[in-house]
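As agreed, record passed on underneath.
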Amino acid sequence: MRFLTKRLDELTVVDRIPDDREKVFFGAYVTLADDAGEEVTYQIVGPDEFDVKEGKLSMDSPLARQLLGKRLDDEIVLRLPEGTKRYDLVEIDYRGY
């Protein structure tokens, strides 16, 4: 209970679509395409909500940190232990607001 009570003081409710809808902000659904053309969609959520299997990516994850502030058609390069992975940002959506 103490942990949750402290977390409530730090939370910010996002209840509207940002003015610039072509830029990635918290809550955005982003679709990425890799070099093979395979697409994946994630929603950027808070650290307490993430579930990669459901497409919910924590804003604190390395990929989300690179996505925040990016625009359509920007390139994202993620460094992984097995090498680098390159994505193109092909869609930003703010559904549900």
About this structure: The chain is about 15% helix and 35% strand.
